[in-house]
Every structure is written in structure tokens, then in C-alpha cells.
Amino acid sequence: MANENVCPRCGRMNYDPEIDICPDCGWRADAEEPVIPEVRQDLYLDKCICPVCGKTELLMEGSVCKVCGWCNDPVQNGDPDEECGQNEMSLRQAREAYSKGQKVR
């Protein structure tokens, strides 16, 4: 019998079947295909998955993603069109740049 707390996508033990989302990778059972998450806040710790690339765990405000360079800014994370913050680009612009292989600023 499989452990129901293991996420089928990332294999970590934090998957909570009651809320049906993995706080580490953002996997949802009802998602038809993987998507870059909006901002998936961990329910137990102060961390989130990078909202631009979805590949790095950002532990606190001001943390910089080692994969794409996004600086964790809760204001910009909450408003994807906000350009005034710790990043030059809005979250929407950064996602588009990352998807095209361009630098995130």
C-alpha cells in the first residue's frame, strides 16, 4: 500500500490529501497538466515555491531563486502586474521572460 502523504510528483512526504496539494512542488490531483504555480505558500513553514520557474523553494522575503533570479517579494507575488518592488519586472513579465529563455530582472 502506497503512503498517501507522499507526493506523486516530487516524492516528498509533505503532501496533504485533505487539501489535495503538495506544498513543496505545487502538484494538485485535479490539475490536467503541470503549470507554473501562482504562489503556493507552505501551510506549515514560511516558504514558497518560486512563482516564476517553479523549481526552487524560497524560504523568506528577499530570497533569490538560484534557477531564474526572481527575488521573493510578497507584494509582487500577490499582484502579478506590479512592477515596483524588489524586481524590475512584474511577475507576469518575469514568467514570460523565463519561458523565452531571457534573463529575469
> Number of DSSP helices?
2
Estimate the strand proportion: under 5%
Flag low-confidence runs: 40-45
Instruction: Give the beta-strand count.
Output: 2
Question: Shape, please?
Answer: elongated
Features:
single chain, 105 residues, little secondary structure, 2 domains, two-stranded antiparallel ribbon
Describe what you observe in this structure.
The protein has two helices and two strands. The protein has 105 residues and is low in regular secondary structure. It has a two-stranded antiparallel sheet with strand order 1-2.
Q: What's the structural blueprint in terms of helices and strands?
A:
Blueprint: E1 48-49, E2 57-58, H1 74-78, H2 91-99
Antiparallel strand pairs: 1-2
Give a short summary of the structure.
With 105 residues, the protein is largely without helices or strands. The protein has helices at 74-78, 91-99, and strands at residues 48-49, 57-58.
